[in-house]
Amino acid sequence: MPHTLSNPPKVLTFGEAMAMFVADTLGDLSGIEHFHRRLAGADNNVAIGLSRLVFTSAG
Predict the structure, then answer these.
(1) For the segment 19-41, what is each residue's pLDDT rounded down to a tens digit?
(2) HEC string of the chain?
(3) Are 43 and 14 in contact (CB under 8 A)?
(4) Nearest CA to 24 among 38, 42, 44, 45?
């Protein structure tokens, strides 16, 4: 069966997932009290990008 928007190919990504902590304010690291946690890593970025393009992805 050919791949279409209603039947996209499935994509499997693998690698190491990482967490990125971004400070809420500027300043020395020792003085920062609050951080936002973000998902990082090339494999996660690829999986997210492909899922936004209608691919089915598993990371």
Answers:
(1) 899 999 999 989 999 999 988 88
(2) CCCECCECCEEECCCCCEEEEEECCCCCHHHCCCEEEEEECHHHHHHHHHHHCCCEEEC
(3) yes
(4) 38
